[in-house]
Design goal:
Glutathione S-transferase Yfyf (Class Pi), Chain A, domain 2; Glutathione_S-Trfase; alpha+beta; 2 domains; globular; Glutathione-S-Trfase_C-like; 8% strand; Glutaredoxin; 9 helices; GST-like protein; Glutathione_S-Trfase_N; single chain
Amino acid sequence: MIDLYYWTTPNGHKITMFLEEAQLPYEIFPINISKGEQFAPEFLKIAPNNRIPAIVDQSPIDGGEPIAVFESGAILLYLADKLKQFVPQDLRGRNVALEWLFWQMGGLGPMAGQNHHFVQYAPEKIQYAMDRYIKETARLYGVLNKHLADGREYIAGEYSIADMACYPWVVPHERQQQKMTDFPFLTSWFERIQNRPATIKAYALAATINTAPTVNEESKKLLFGQDAKTVK
């Protein structure tokens, strides 16, 4: 059994997509980030960065005590290695999957996240910042589009944690001011994942957990006003 500490963000969706694909038993513990639940001391013990998602594996493969894992990329890799699924088992294939997993963690996620912030949530519209992150998001879409142009169906050939990591960050492409028609190979890849039964289940589940907008004027103070004092 996996305990999943979760909210309906792109990083949260990554993990429900994996768990639904693997049909691994799990229980969701919602962490409503708009209400500051990510700062609860009991959650901090599991996720020291005050961010979702996080998991506790109640049955680790070494047979020992439960293992807590935070950071979505680390969770995906942990689960894939636990089950020996959704990450290639050969050296070269695994390398490709991990390259693109870390590409998402270090590039697509942070850049698209800044896109969301300055375009959607910043209290003042700073044109330079908006242009910077809209263009960088487009560049990253272009990088993945070019990678997929050789006819491969998924990022590492077979469906993997690399796809699960990237897909949720492309879902809000309209909010990111990206035109999918500019990226035909990316679009085909996106639609393949969108139509997978596990993806449909994961997003349907999200709709039952979060029925109100996550970001409002009050929650902005929690989500965007943190500094070093937050972690003391």
